[in-house]
Amino acid sequence: IKGGGTSVTSMHYNTAPGQALWHSKVPNDEEYLQILEELVPKTESDRITVAFNNFKKHYRSTPLKKINKNPSTRDIFAETMLKKAELNQKIIMLDADLAQSIKIHTFQERFPERFIETGIAEQDMVSIAGGLALEGLIPVVNTYACFFRRGFEQIYINATEKTFIIYAGNYSGLCYSTDGKTHQMTGDIPMMRSIPDMRVYDPFCKEELDSLLDFLFCTEKIKNYPVYIKLRRTPSNSQIKLPANYSFDPENGVHLKPGRDICLVAAGPHMASYALKATELAGCNSGIVALTPQNYLNPSKIKSLFESYTTLVTLEEGVSSGGLGDALSEINLGKKIIRKGVDDFTFSARRKEDLYKNFNLDPESLARTLKKLSVATAKL
Questions:
Q1: pTM value > 0.70
Q2: Interior CA angle at 87 toward 83 and 89, to 5°?
Q3: Can you list the alpha helix ranges (DSSP code H) found in the chain?
Q4: Domain shared by 50 and 108, yes or no
Q5: How far is residue 291's CA from residue 123's CA, in Å, rounded to a whole number?
Q6: Crossing angle of helices 269-282/363-379, nearest 10°?
Q7: Calpha distance 106→103 (Å, rounded)
Q8: Mean of the pLDDT values across residues 226-243?
């Protein structure tokens, strides 16, 4: 019995393929409490029992948070790829036993002949994708971002063939916290940026992700390069409002809020959302730019984008070394660049909001940073 130990999590050995609920689901608050109710007595520990009873009082008195029903970039990617596959017979979806979790089970149901389930064998999955690409097909390789570490050698070898493969790194960043350090990934951007010709993207909203996929499947020039797309399990707290003159550019960012002197440069949906909230809390005239491309930026466009600023603060939901801050530093902008990211191991299964706070990436911490920088800038 997989997941044995509680009546909530137990799954019989003959559970049908694709129906393994607890390899694709996080317990809700009531299920979590029931699991603890069954497990704590088995410890036969007075200390744990007392701690649990105290926790339970607080847990029951804490109002449940409203569920965010906005789609995450994971959801958007899965939905859009299904539409692309309707029009493009060459698209092949590969999975490593996570179809339910990353929402590509609908693709499996609609196109079973174009869905390859390798099981938990990421190196094999990436190698298979390499062969498919050499045959002129378009493999889309799906797993948690953290598990691409296992297949990194194969990803590198595939890149030497200069074929078009899309690597979808799901559950990336800090917004996925429940499974702790083994399933969290904060180093995927630097890892993928280290591969020559690999295009690396971190879409910050639905429009950017949809436009990126339109670009990838409609532009011949990109077909000779592999692509990595960083995707989130959890939607951002607020929807990003794009400017009236918005248009997608795979080599440039989007000005979400004009300003002067200081500019927050956000990577991904959560950092973009938190940046907007931070400027509101700080009450300052800082600008905000969101950047989907994490490498192969257009120098002239980037210089124009940041023309009115003296200081750039990059906000990365990952390791800042080798990430977006480095990409901007490669361009001679003549600006002060301050990097803010996850410069340590996460090692935590704490709640999402607490993880951001731990690394000073929550709106309140960012607002304090802005206020300090604004004072320092005013003295110059």
A1: yes
A2: 110
A3: 29-43, 46-61, 73-87, 105-110, 122-134, 152-160, 188-193, 206-218, 269-282, 299-305, 324-329, 352-358, 363-379
A4: no
A5: 30
A6: 60
A7: 7
A8: 93
The answer to whether position 242 is within a domain reads no
Within 8 A by CB and 6+ apart from 53, the residues are none
Q: What type of residue is 14?
A: N
DSSP letters of 109-146?
HH-GGGEEE--S-HHHHHHHHHHHHHTT-EEEEEEEGG
Instruction: Note whether 149 and 45 are same-domain residues.
Output: no
Q: Mean pLDDT over all residues of the chain?
A: 91
Does residue 328 have a pLDDT over 80? yes
Structure tokens at 221: 């020039």
CA 191, 134, 150: angle at the middle one, nearest 5?
A: 30
Q: Which domain covers residue 266, as residue numbers? A: 254-379
* pLDDT the model gives residue 3: 66
93 and 146, same domain (yes or no): yes
- Which letter does DSSP use for residue 309 in this model? E
pLDDT at residue 2 greater than cutoff 90: no
DSSP states along 18-56 = T--GGGS----HHHHHHHHHHHHHHHT-HHHHHHHHHHH
The confidence band for 1, taking pLDDT boundaries of 50, 70 and 90, is low
170 and 81 co-located in one domain: yes
List the one residue out of 230, 226, 227 whose CA is nearest residue 204.
230
Do 26 and 79 lie in one domain? The reply is no
With contact defined as beta carbons under 8 Å apart, do 35 and 9 qualify?
yes
The token pair at 349 is 């299964």
**Contact yes or no for 313/327 (Cβ under 8 A):** no
